[in-house]
Amino acid sequence: MNSLLEKLYVPGHIEYLILDPNLVILDKSPRVERFAEFPQDVAIGQDARLSFPELVGSETIVQQIIAGNTQNSYLEGITRSSQAGTPLYIDFNFERIGNNAILLMEDVTEIMVLKQSLLQRANEAELLLSALKASEDYNKKIISSMGDALFVTTGSGKIKTINQAAQQLFGYSEDELIGQPIALIIEDEQFLLEASQQKLSSQQFLAGVEVLCHRKNGGELIVEFSCSVIQTRIQGSPAFVYIGRDITARKNAEIEMNKALEKEKELNDLKSRFISMTSHEFRNPLSSILMSVDILENFADEWSEDRKDSHLQRIRQCTTTMTSLLDDILIIGRAEVGKLEFKPSPLKLTDFLQYIVEDIQLLAGSDYKIALNLSPSLDGKIFQLDEKLLRHILTNLLTNAVKYSPQGGQVDFEVRIENNWLHLTIQDQGIGIPPADQEHLFECFHRAPNVGDISGTGLGLSIVKKAVDLYRGKIVCRSELGVGTTFQVDLPLNGIPKS
Amino acid sequence: MAIISKKVCMIGDFGVGKTSLIRRFVERQFSDQYLSTVGVKISRKIVNLQHLEVDLSQEIKLLIWDIEGQTKFKAIASSYLQGASGILVVADSTRQETIEHLQDHVKQFVAINSNGMIAVALNKVDLVDPEDIEQIRKNMSFSEHQVLGIYNTSAKTGQNVDHIFETLAFKIWRQDNR
């Protein structure tokens, strides 16, 4: 049987074992031992699993083949880890032969080694691709989920990568930005220049640079950018990575906070000055009142009526001064909290001006002269004016003009209308305002040092300025020491002009 | 007691670490270098079941078939799985697609051998955050009663390597000795 098989069916390079259902060797090819793990155990009548341990588990296969349930069973490229050196690969093929099974074994080492080499390269490439894909996917997800805007540009500043946040922040689509210069987004040339100078120092980066940017729709936003340089795979060709965070809201909040702090500071200063001024300005009249009251209490019985009247007059004068001061403070206070408003109403201007001048003239007495020069075009005309604000402006300017003029001095008050503006000019020949004090003219409680004993609160011109501002008008002062002062007030007619 | 010999197979996608797990278990060695397996490479190791049950003085010789991993071009040949008492199905916990293929491998084995024991190894856990591993495990479930469990393994550190083979050997022995 052995020799017949060899002659008829089995090629020379194939070895075989003929096995019974219990895997006992019934016959074998002469050189089958070369494939056995334990060649010494290959013998007819011996269990094949002793010499070929890989046959453990093959019992069912062999029995099914002998029973005719399975035609054959093929196991490709079996090798053993216990083998040293180049592994031996064998193909196992079980087939039926009579009432037994034949296990044909063929050395396929050469082809399997070649296959291993090919598979190794293919699998390595696949693993690498898989890792790269996973890494790329991971990085893309990180970039797309970033809340900050990301731009990557070429060395020359052309945008080549952006993320979702950048599109949302600036309102451009990816197609609209790719290939465009980064200057389209970042208009700060200084920042871009500094960034480009990092070409040679890739370890450095710019951080926290606040840049005013524009959205596609023209809207402004403030973005805090950082910029770093990365080396691309092309030697000497860097890429720039810009990461920007919209800080518009934060900056606006900061500005608002600073404004509020500034306002708070101003109010505090005002309060301090008020306390300081009131304690000073109120103390003198109050002391005078107290002194006069004391004197009247102690000596009223002994004094003549004229003398008593003199003290009563002093008390009245002091009270008037304090009332005037309080009125000014109240006006300033109302302006500070926004309660002083511009409320125009029909006003016959000439009548109003004459009344004001007469009023001031009455207070000034005959030692001073106020010359009102009205443009003829004003005669009898009614204008939309805020009487209250106008009164604050004129009363204070005219009173000052009189107060700081020498005895017998004249105040010229000219009123005209031109191009829908009301021009008021008040000129005196008084003591003048030192140049250093002219820039502080409208500050509360500020008084020039050359006023001497002339009484005043330092609030009049502040009130004038606030009233002119509410009018959206203009006020200009020209003054020369010892020569005189001219105030020019220009107020728009027919309501507040658009700013 | 005589040593019992049992065939167990390692299956899974290519590159998941089947050969490394065997090498760690049999030779107590590990190499980072990837060497693809072609055909099937058979290793053997005797497991003393006393490790798992103190009173049990039984040894099992495991013939471990390291079967060429599945690729997108080639499936695992079912003929290799015939006669196996158990399998160890392996996935690479860093590669989602290998985890998704676990179920297919389990079904392939159950179709051939409905009584064989199955252990599932989530390999390379040393490369993944423990909380991610927990999430992967939560997303996995096997309805086959032959599945002994899912084991977090690392051929590099040796984590659970002996345990998974010994448990598989023990369950195979118990299956035969009920």
Architecture overview:
Chain A: Its EC number is 2.7.13.3. Chain A: This is histidine kinase. Chain A: Keywords: Kinase, Phosphoprotein, Transferase, Two-component regulatory system. The complex is a heterodimer of chains A (499) and B (178). Chain A folds into 4 domains: 106 residues, PAS domain (Beta-Lactamase), CATH 3.30.450; 101 residues, PAS domain (Beta-Lactamase), CATH 3.30.450; 63 residues, Orthogonal Bundle (Helix Hairpins), CATH 1.10.287; 148 residues, Histidine kinase-like ATPase, C-terminal domain (Heat Shock Protein 90, 2-Layer Sandwich). Helix content of chain A is 41%, strand content 24%. Chain A is built from 13 helices and 17 strands. The radius of gyration of chain A is 53 Å and the shape is rod-shaped. Chain A starts with a helix and ends in a 7-residue tail after the last strand. The model of chain A has no long low-confidence stretch (mean pLDDT 87). Chain B has 178 residues and is an alpha/beta fold. Chain B has a single domain, classed as 3-Layer(aba) Sandwich (Rossmann fold). In chain B, strands 2-3-1-4-5-6 form a 6-stranded mixed sheet, sandwiched between helices. In chain B, helix 4 links the parallel strand 5 and strand 6. Classes of the chains: A alpha+beta (499), B alpha/beta (178). At the A-B interface, helix 3, strand 3 and helix 4 of A face strand 1, strand 2 and strand 3 of B.
Condensed summary:
The complex is a heterodimer of chains A (499) and B (178). Chain A has 499 residues and is α+β, with helices and mostly antiparallel strands.
| CATH homologous group name of the largest domain in chain A | Histidine kinase-like ATPase, C-terminal domain
The helix/strand class of chain B is alpha/beta
Euclidean distance between termini CA atoms of chain B: 17 Å
Largest sheet of chain A: 5 strands, antiparallel
CATH architecture level-2 label of chain B: 3-Layer(aba) Sandwich
Query: What radius of gyration of chain B results from the CA coordinates?
Result: 15 Å
CATH superfamily of chain B: P-loop containing nucleotide triphosphate hydrolases
For the largest beta sheet of chain B, what order do the strands appear in spatially? Answer: 2-3-1-4-5-6
Biggest interchain interface, per-side counts: A-B, 33 and 35 residues
The CATH architecture of the largest domain in chain A: 2-Layer Sandwich
Estimated share of beta-strand residues of chain A: 15-25%
Estimated helix fraction of chain B:
25-40%
The total strand number of chain B stands at 6
Mean pLDDT of chain B: 93
Order of helices and strands of chain B: EHEEEHHEHEH
Distance between the termini of chain A: 119 Å
